[in-house]
Each structure stands twice: as structure tokens, then as C-alpha cells.
Amino acid sequence: MADRNDLQEWVYEAVKSNGGTASVVEVAKHIWDQHEDELKASGDLFYTWQYDMRWAADKLRKANRFALSGRKWALR
């Protein structure tokens, strides 16, 4: 079952697959397309994953793996 910590890697993968920069909507679409079944089976995370993906992006920024590029998230 997926949990909040899985979202860090999913967010990173989503931005990477979008050429290194992506909007919140682009990341959410990618995560849903790639991990829908895992999200549906994840209990409460199914109801909070879009909030939690922002938490994950913040963790990635603090770990110096992400930067903000205007209104998009970008790889460092």
C-alpha cells in the first residue's frame, strides 16, 4: 500500500518525465495516470494525495532536488 513518502519519488518522476519542469496539474495528471490503482488502494492517502504531493515537493526542495521555476517545479 502506498503512503505519503512514496509521493516524493512519484513527484520527482513526474517532473523528470515532463522534461525537468512541470506544473502542479501536470504532476497530478502524471501521478494519477501512473499510480491510480495504488492510490485507490492506499486508504486515507486516496483522499489527501494532492495535498501530500505538495508536501512531497516541499521536501524535495528542502533536500535540494527541486527548485521553483516560476509557477512550476523544476529539477536541480
Task: Explain briefly what this protein structure is.
By secondary structure, the chain is of the alpha+beta class. 62% of the residues lie in helices and 13% in strands.
Description:
It contains three helices and three strands, in the order αβααββ. The protein is α+β, with helices and mostly antiparallel strands and 76 residues long. The chain has a single domain, classed as Arc Repressor Mutant, subunit A (Orthogonal Bundle), CATH 1.10.10. The chain has a three-stranded antiparallel beta sheet. A hairpin with a 2-residue loop joins strand 2 and strand 3. The protein is globular, with a radius of gyration of 12 Å. The protein starts with 5 loop residues before the first helix and ends with a strand.
